[in-house]
Structures are given as structure tokens and as C-alpha cells.
Design the sequence.
């Protein structure tokens, strides 16, 4: 307990004092809930993971809970927590400080509920718009996703809670996730999915990494020596510990030697508790040296010391629900994306006398994604009893009703109809100044959506309402890109994601211009599935919620089709145009860029330019820096950005430093990033498809390893 010593030194001292049984206790956690007739372990907090304290050593119990959007407990009635909006909303803000604030808020709530490990930090790249867990992650670009999640991890750990970057790696689909093999060339993986993890770990220094269910190139992630030992622990010099996902362990000695440090809830989810008797036998036989067991324990202890778990034990305390809801509201306000706004239909004037509010349970609340990340609202589920009743459902609604929030702003009256009766919705819309239609797409862990079509005849509803009233606004509460066949018929579309604990208030403030939308899409929005590298997901859908499964799940998924060219790079390579490009987002003013200058200074590419607010209202812009490497066939990459707030008419000089790894290719031989000498194209983008200003610049050859690559965020 000598705080003048380093985390490594302190871990070493405890390790030396431990018995073999205590070591074997530490390298596995138990499921922290009651299940299958077995009671919850004594001392657990009805959560995902638990390991009893070891008082002799001064080791507290390990109390693990989900996850990235707040303290999640699907069945903890009445004692909920504050839900952040989708991870996609925070990513769409392009604001690392906002990500930090969200992480700090959920970290503080976890701490106040007695937890010391938050299983939060989902950073898997979005390779498919139908992946059931897109809402938990941060989109398709490795620099954006890594930067945003890295800062969220920083925020969580600022509360002396261990964060857990996950799901390592290439867990980009839910269908068949327990066996599916993600096939991707190692070099392409380094320059895409693994780069997101590398950046996030370099910024956030998470105490834990969670290895994924799936296989990577045929080898389970939690026994994958390349992923765990070579990339994570050797190349990236990661000092923390690797925990498994819940049911992701398939061996004892092989997994331990491949770099797994802790088995999670194996007594329920694995074929056996590998990290007990089978691993003890592997040590006795010499298959696993004692030194490996000691290293597993050392890594866990080091993270507990490094993140302050030992020195600042979590103390149960009431939540600061009002302040925490304000953090969630700010994230939603900064991350909502205005996709369309014809004839400046938005912002709405408060002088409106009648507003039709239709669908999406907008009279009660806003939608939440399903599965282990679902946060039970403190006031309880605003719309209980929806299908599917069992995990990953039921769907939760955060009790922040858009209808009430809109009614607080109009001088007249906002009236609601639930949208199931299209004729009634048409009637109400026809007799209202404007119609706001809330459409929703519930998604969840454990299954993928079979297609991009909105469920429950919502397309027909929107089309009918738009026909009845040209001043129709659609608000999307969804998991990722969806078909919008009615897009040309509606006046405005606001992408509100899963809006979080104060979503209704945030949406109303955005619609009435009390805050201007400033989000930019963290992914490309395909026109339809034919534009995707894989138009079909075999076996997608979940019968339990009426989604038609599409055949048998596949044994593997070939990500080599696009390789490192994920998202906007795929569209550029194929010369096809998505419906909306990565980085797209409108606001209530417009911006221009000029005087672009690119310079190579002190080994960094620095791009300077002026941003002007050329409209009549204040607003926030996100100028994006894209770079194309000199080799032929290269596609442009996001190399940096700035989020800047400007008053009407204001101009500001801005500088953006490109991340060194984005200018380089990964070279497996020396395990470094190699920048080729040559002429690089620099483009300033309003999105990945709309540029204002470009330059060519000759850069010298160079290389950087992990330690020298990472430019300050
Ligand atoms: C899961 C999820 C993981 C979660 C864990 C504990 O199945 O994949 O994200 O943290 O179980 O609930």
C-alpha cells in the first residue's frame, strides 16, 4: 500500500506474497448474477462479473459491470442508471472532450454503485450497417473511433475505475459470433481494425482488454497468439490484462500461452472452468510455466494499482442524476446529425400553433439498444412490455418524451398519435403546421438486422404523412444506416441515434434551434445493400423478434473484400456514391474554407486554413483533413479534424496535425509504420466526398513505431 512505489513495483510485492490458490482465484471471475437456479454469489452486485476479495492481501472484490453507454443491468428493476446516447452519437460529435465527459460520467456512476471494473470501450470498426451492435461502437474510421473511444476510456479511468477496450478483435458481426471466423490479411487488419485499438489504447491506456468471441483467421481471439502476444503485448507493449468475453474461452494451456490472462464467468458460459483445474494440470505438466501464471496475476494487479482501484476503493453513494443527465443531453445535442433540411424547414419557430408528433413512442420516451449495454433508466422503462421479453430484450425507452419537450416550446399545441393507424396520422398531419415523425429501429447484441429496411411499416407511415403535409420532419432512432425511400418527399431528417437519458429534451432543443445540430456521420450511409462488400449476412435476423433469419450463419466472413478500405475508402475504391458520405452533417448556417497551407515541420504534417461562418446563425463546423498517399491505387484517409464553433460572419485560423500512422503503411517485417517519400495529396473536407481546398506536398520517407508514432491527441 506504499503509494510512493510504481504500479509495477506494488504489483510485484503483492504477487510475491500470494499463494498459488490465490493466484488461481485472481485469474478467473464468476458470473455476478443469479442464474439457472443458482443464487448470486455472496458479495456480488447482480452484475456481469465478480471475484471475492482477498482480505489477507488487501485485495478488494472485483466488481465488473457493463458497459459503454452507462451502468447496465438488464434486470435490476428500480435501481437504474443514466444512459448516454449511442456510441455513434459521441463519435458523430467528433469531440474527444465530450467523449471524456461521457466516460467520466458513467465511470462515476459505476463507482457510486460499488463497481471497480467497467466493461466499456467498444471500438470495433463498423464494417456492416446491419451489425446489431453498431450503436455501441464509434463508426467506420480507425482514427475517429480510436480517438473518441480512447478519450472515453480516459474519462472512465479518471474515476479510478478500470476500463475495458473491446471486443478485440474484428467482432464486426453478431450472427454466429461465437464461432464465426473473421478473415482479414494481417497488414490490412493493422491499418484498420487493429489501428482503432492501437490508437484507443495509446490515448486511454485501458487497464483491461476484452478478447472477442469470434475467430480471427481461424483461431479464436482468446487463444490467438498473434493478436494477444505478438500485436497487443509485444508490438504495442500493453502492460494490462486480457479478459475473455463471457463464453469465449476454449482451452486452458493454449489460451494462457496465447496471452489470455483472465477467464470471465466460465462456470456458466464456458464448456468448463478452464482457468482452474485444467490450467493447474497444464502447470503441473510443464505445458504452462509458473512464470506465465505469475505474469497473468501481475498484469491484473498492475491495472488495479495503475487505475487507483486499490487506493480509492469504490464507495456506494447516490447518483447525481440531474448532472449526469445533462452530460447525456450534451452528447446527444452534439452528436445528432442533420441529414436533410429543405428550404430551411428547421429550426422550427416557437410561434407554431400546431405540431403533429407521430410514432416512435415519442409520447413516452426514446429508444435504447438491446443487450448487455442496455441501461435501465433510473425511473424505470418508459415503455415496458415490448417484444422480445427475454434477453437481449425487452427494449428499454428512456423516459425523456419528445412530445412533452416539444409542447414546452410551441405556443400552440403538439398532439401525438402512435403511427400504427396511418389514417389517423395522416389526419393529424394534414391539420397541423408541421409533422414530426419518429421512426425507430431496435437493434441489439447477439443478432444482426437482415436488411436496412425500417420495420413495422414505418416507410408507409412516413410516405403517407409527407403526402399529407410537406412540412414533415423525420427523426431517426436507429442503430445505423437504413433505407429511406421517402427521403425526397420529406422536408428534414434528423439522425438522433439512440438518444440517451435526456434524448427528448435534446431533440426538441435541436428542432427549435436552441442548439444547432453539429454532428457529422461517423460512417458512410449506403443507398442499399448492393453497395456493400457483402450484400447479404447469412443467417442474420432473430426469429424471437420477428426478424426473418436468412439461412444458416456462415462459418467465416471475408473482410479481405474491402481489406483496410473500410467505409468511405470502399466507396472511393469502387467509384460508387453512398446516399450520404462519411463526415456529412448539416446545421443552421454554412461554412467555407480557404487559404489552405500544408507544411512539413518537425517531422509532422501540419495543415493550416481559415474557416468562415458564411451564414446568419452561429454554428459548429468539423473541417476534416483527408490525405492520399503517393502509391497508386491509394484511397484517401481521414488524417485529422477540428471541431470549431463560430459566430455568424466569424473567421478563424485553424491548424490540424495529421496522425503519423495515417500517412504510413504498416510493414510487418520491422513491425513499424513506414512513410514512403513522395507527393501526398491533402484535401480539406466538409465530408469524405465534399472538398474545399487541396494541396500537394512532398514528404520525406520515414518510419515510426508505436511509441514514436502517436502524435498528441
Ligand atoms: C457479452 C458481451 C460483452 C459484455 C459481456 C458481459 O456477451 O459480448 O460486451 O461485456 O458479455 O456482459
Sequence:
Amino acid at each position: 500500500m506504499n503509494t510512493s512505489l510504481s504500479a509495477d513495483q506494488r504489483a510485484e510485492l503483492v504477487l510475491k506474497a500470494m499463494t498459488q490458490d490465490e493466484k488461481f482465484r485472481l485469474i478467473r471471475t464468476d458470473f455476478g448474477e443469479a442464474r439457472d437456479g443458482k443464487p448470486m454469489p455472496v458479495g456480488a452486485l447482480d452484475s456481469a462479473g465478480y471475484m471475492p476479495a482477498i482480505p489477507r492481501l488487501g485485495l478488494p472484490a472485483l466488481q465488473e459491470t457493463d458497459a459503454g453507454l452507462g451502468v447496465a443491468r438488464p434486470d435490476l428493476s428500480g435501481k437504474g442508471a443514466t444512459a448516454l446516447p449511442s456510441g455513434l452519437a459521441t463519435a458523430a460529435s467528433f469531440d474527444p472532450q465530450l467523449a471524456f465527459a461521457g466516460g467520466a460520467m458513467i465511470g462515476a456512476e459505476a463507482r457510486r454503485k460499488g463497481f471497480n471494473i467497467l466493461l466499456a470501450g467498444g471500438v470495433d470498426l463498423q464494417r456492416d450497417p446491419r451489425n446489431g451492435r453498431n450503436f455501441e461502437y464509434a463508426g467506420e474510421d480507425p482514427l475517429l473511433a480510436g480517438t473518441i473511444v480512447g478519450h472515453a476510456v480516459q474519462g472512465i479511468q479518471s474515476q479510478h475505475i478500470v476500463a475495458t477496450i473491446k471486443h478485440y478483435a474484428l467482432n464486426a458481426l453478431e450472427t454466429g459470433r461465437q464461432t464465426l471466423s473473421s478473415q482479414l490479411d494481417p497488414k490490412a487488419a493493422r491499418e484498420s481494425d487493429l489501428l482503432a485499438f492501437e490508437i484507443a489504447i495509446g490515448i486511454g491506456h485501458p487497464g483491461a482488454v476484452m478478447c472477442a468471441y469470434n475467430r480471427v483467421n481461424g483461431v479464436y481471439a482468446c487463444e490467438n497468439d498473434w493478436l494477444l502476444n505478438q500485436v497487443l503485448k509485444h508490438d504495442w507493449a500493453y502492460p494490462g490484462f486480457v479478459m475473455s468475453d463471457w463464453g469465449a474461452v476454449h482451452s486452458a494451456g493454449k489460451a494462457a500461452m496465447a496471452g489470455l490472462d483472465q477467464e470471465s464467468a466460465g462456470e456458466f458460459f464456458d464448456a468448463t472452468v478452464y482457468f482452474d483445474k485444467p490450467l493447474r494440470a497444464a502447470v503441473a505438466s510443464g505445458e504452462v510455466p509458473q512464470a506465465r501464471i505469475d505474469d497473468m496475476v501481475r498484469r491484473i494487479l498492475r491495472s488495479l494499482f495503475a487505475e487507483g482501484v486499490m487506493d480509492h476503493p469504490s464507495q456506494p453513494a447516490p447518483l447525481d442524476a440531474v448532472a449526469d443527465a445533462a452530460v447525456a443531453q450534451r452528447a446527444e445535442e452534439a452528436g445528432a446529425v442533420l441529414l436533410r433540411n429543405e428550404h430551411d424547414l428547421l429550426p422550427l419557430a416557437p410561434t407554431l400553433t400546431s405540431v403533429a408528433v407521430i410514432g416512435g413512442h415519442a409520447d413516452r420516451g426514446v429508444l435504447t439498444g438491446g443487450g448487455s449495454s442496455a441501461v435501465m433508466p433510473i425511473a424505470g422503462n418508459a415503455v415496458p412490455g415490448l417484444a422480445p421479453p427475454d434477453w437481449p430484450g425487452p427494449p428499454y425507452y428512456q423516459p425523456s418524451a419528445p412530445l412533452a419537450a416539444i409542447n414546452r416550446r410551441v405556443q400552440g399545441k403538439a398532439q401525438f398519435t402512435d403511427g400504427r393507424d396511418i389514417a389517423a396520422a395522416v389526419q393529424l398531419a394534414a391539420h397541423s403546421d408541421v409533422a414530426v415523425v419518429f421512426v425507430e429501429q431496435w437493434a441489439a447484441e447477439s443478432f444482426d438486422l437482415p436488411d436496412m429496411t425500417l420495420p413495422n411499416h414505418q416507410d408507409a407511415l412516413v410516405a403517407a404523412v409527407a403526402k399529407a403535409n410537406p412540412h414533415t420532419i423525420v427523426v431517426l432512432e436507429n442503430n445505423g444506416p437504413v433505407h429511406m425511400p421517402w427521403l425526397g418527399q420529406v422536408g428534414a431528417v434528423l439522425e438522433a441515434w439512440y438518444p440517451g437519458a435526456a434524448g427528448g429534451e435534446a431533440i426538441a432543443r435541436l428542432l427549435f434551434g436552441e442548439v444547432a445540430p453539429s454532428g457529422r456521420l461517423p460512417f458512410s450511409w449506403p443507398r442499399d445493400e448492393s453497395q456493400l462488400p457483402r450484400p447479404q449476412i447469412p443467417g442474420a435476423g432473430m426469429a424471437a423478434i420477428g426478424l426473418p433469419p436468412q439461412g444458416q450463419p456462415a462459418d467465416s466472413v471475408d473482410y479481405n473484400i474491402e481489406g483496410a478500405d473500410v467505409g468511405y475508402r470502399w466507396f472511393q475504391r469502387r467509384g460508387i456514391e453512398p446516399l450520404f458520405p462519411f463526415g456529412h452533417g448539416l446545421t443552421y448556417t454554412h461554412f467555407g474554407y480557404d487559404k489552405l497551407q500544408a507544411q512539413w515541420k518537425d517531422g509532422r504534417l501540419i495543415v493550416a486554413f481559415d474557416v468562415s461562418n458564411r451564414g446568419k446563425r452561429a454554428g459548429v463546423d468539423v473541417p476534416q483533413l483527408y490525405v492520399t498517399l503517393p502509391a497508386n491505387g491509394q484511397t484517401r484517409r481521414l488524417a485529422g479534424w477540428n471541431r470549431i464553433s463560430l459566430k455568424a460572419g466569424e473567421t478563424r485560423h485553424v491548424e490540424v496535425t495529421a496522425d503519423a500512422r495515417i500517412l504510413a503503411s504498416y510493414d510487418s517485417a520491422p513491425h513499424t509504420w513506414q512513410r514512403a517519400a513522395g507527393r501526398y495529396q491533402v484535401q480539406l473536407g466538409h465530408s469524405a466526398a465534399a472538398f474545399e481546398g487541396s494541396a500537394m506536398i512532398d514528404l520525406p520517407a520515414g518510419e515510426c513505431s508505436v511509441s514514436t508514432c502517436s502524435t498528441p491527441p
